[in-house]
Amino acid sequence: MRLNILTAVGIALLCQVPAFAWSNKEHMQFARIAAERLIADAKTPPAMKEWLRKGLGKPMDIAAEKQWFMNERIGLFVRTTDPLPYWATMPDMMVMGDNPSKKVEPWGAHERLMHFVDVEFFMADSARRIYKHDLSNKPTVADFPDNPKDYRWERAGFLPFRVRECYQKLVESIKAGKMTDAPGQYPRDEHAIKWAGYLAHYAADNTQPQHATEDYKSSRYFTDGRKSPNVHAEMEYRMCDDDQDDYADLRAEFWPLFEKALAEGKDPVETKDLFRATIEVSLISYDALPMIGRAAMAAAKQGGTPEKPEGPAGEFDTRVFFRSKGTFQGREMTVMEMKAIQTAWAVKRIERLWLAAWDEAHARKPD
Ligand SMILES: [Zn+2]
Fold first, then answer.
1. In whole angstroms, what is the distance from residue 33 CA to residue 66 CA?
2. DSSP annotation string for 18-40
3. Region of residue 305 (left: phi > 0; alpha: psi -120 to 50; beta: else)
4. Residues whose CB is under 5 A from ligand 1 (ion)?
């Protein structure tokens, strides 16, 4: 087991960075901000606030969150005793640490497959199960069978099932009154903070556009897909938590966009069916993929067109990438603004799912 962890970590380090999801740093912060916003909301039940306060550990306000975002360095191995942020990173730790043959039951698949859903696999025509820049291989909600035994899930990923499962486990834990860690019981005990953290993780992965496509590194925008830059890593962690550069300028540009999206953005999902909701989030996020691809081409000076890249790619310029403009949700915006919208949406999804679980466990009618 130990050997396996070291091997996995070795591989992860060799590849520079694992392509899991938003960075550990972001997963910690999304869970924390969701809890802080619920605590600040007069409509949140007082007992829920109390539980969230315990999960938070050290309380922070949004100004402290900004400082933390600007200056904190987390990396691949999380160092914290704050329960909620810790558990929100655990699913990615399991991707690294779990034996490759270990299966998450009842899904019968490795933890790695819990974090995404590659929507193209649900195109009826099997020849069209690949990403295309014009989004012509994007299925509709009705194309996804709510049946985990359908063979396509094994390749597409189990995110819609995993989100629903974590939500149900959270409801059960709250009903059973198992609200937080029992000292000395890790990892045997089940409790609401653990499942709230897991749920926060997967709900946040859901808004990363590249977690909705088989072309998860946007490599179809490059002449040589195998040697293409790791656009997935650029999208997720580079600006927030890089080994080599703090990107203070990009972080300072990003934060006001994120706060604005938190204040103004809406969760457009209406359904309460979490399987369907997860797919809707993936399909909406999917529409950001063309702008990510074009921006990646610009950042790496890749010649040709999105449909037909030509010539060699150069070194990737993260600043050019995040400042590139494209169209998303019917208007022009930079990749950075799109990231702000998607990550603020993640925070809102987390709040909504936690609150729904709390209400369901207490058989309380939502306001
Ligand atoms: Zn993940």
1. 11
2. ---SS-HHHHHHHHHHHHHHHHH
3. beta
4. 20-21, 92, 115, 205
